[in-house]
Design a protein that fits this description.
The chain is α/β, with parallel strands linked by helices. It is built from eight helices and seven strands, in the order βαβαβαβαβαβαααβ.
Length: about 280
């Protein structure tokens, strides 16, 4: 969903010149929106994904727009593989200044019929992946005098959300890990924050919410339903866009966020404050 505000310049040109930013799940959706903005602002962007087919067109698009970009095949659930892959990026480029933990795997499923594999898959990608990537990048940032980690959470666990027990548990864990790492690593100049998006329709949403076989249909799959939901349930009366989330990530990663750590920044048009029906 593109809106005119997405095109407005917000940050100083070349804000991230000379810096390296690694975005997990950066080939599509919100992650790609974050990669686009950081590349526009001068960062060398490394987008990581398990799926090579997501990476190639994303890299081509970033480079065609004048960005410095490369890809990384990465399974965030594999702690040893994460350490090796992130070290390879640092060895090749000399540094990693910004890590955005965006990789996620979510789908609607009734709690009473959720399989153990469905539970584990989301917990491992969302929560364990966030921790493994943060743990792997920490010594690199420490040795370079600091860095910025931004985790992508969500707002659904603030009030509970039916059919999303696995995702709400994982994202609540991400909030807790964000605050804990912020306290542990502040002495190394590493700032750790999170962004909690509200509903952001992307091309990949329908596919992501279509599995496993016992899943129920995604309530945001039809544009008319999305617009109606925004009018009824979001005080600012529109759905979010990837650029809305990317702007907050860039702010937290920039010098403007130098005295912010351990914070969970909600970017949702006021949705989580609205007490409408599920």
């Amino acid at each position: 969903m593109t809106t005119p505000h997405d095109q407005l310049p917000v940050f100083r040109s070349r804000l991230f010149d000379g810096q390296v930013a690694l975005i997990t799940g950066g080939g599509t959706g919100i992650g790609f929106g974050i990669a686009q903005l950081l590349a526009e602002l001068g960062a060398t962007v490394i987008i990581a994904s398990r799926n090579q087919t997501h990476l190639e067109p994303a890299i081509e698009q970033l480079r065609a727009a004048g960005g410095k970009a490369d890809s990384l095949i990465l399974d965030v659930r594999d702690s040893d593989g994460v350490k090796a892959a992130i070290r390879s990026v640092a060895d090749r480029l000399g540094r990693i200044d910004v890590l955005v933990n965006n990789a996620a795997g979510n789908f609607y499923v009734p709690s009473e019929s959720m399989s153990a594999n469905a539970w584990r898959s989301v917990i491992e990608i969302d929560l364990s992946g966030t921790f493994f990537c943060s743990q792997a990048v920490m010594p690199i940032m420490r040795d370079h005098g600091g860095g910025r980690i931004v985790n992508i959470s969500m707002t659904l666990h603030y009030r509970g959300w039916p059919l999303m027990a696995h995702a709400t548990a994982a994202k609540a864990g991400i909030d807790a890990v964000t605050r804990t790492l912020a306290l542990e690593w502040a002495r190394h100049g590493i700032r750790v924050n999170a962004v909690a998006p509200g509903p952001v329709p992307t091309e990949g949403v329908k596919k992501a919410f279509s599995a496993p076989p016992d899943a129920v249909p995604d309530v945001f799959s039809v544009e008319r339903a999305m617009e109606d939901y925004a009018r009824r349930s979001i005080p600012l009366a529109r759905m979010g866009s990837p650029r809305d989330i990317a702007n907050m990530v860039a702010f937290l990663a920039s010098p403007a966020g130098d005295w912010i750590t351990g914070s969970i920044m909600v970017v949702d048009g006021g949705e989580w404050l609205q007490k409408g029906p599920h």
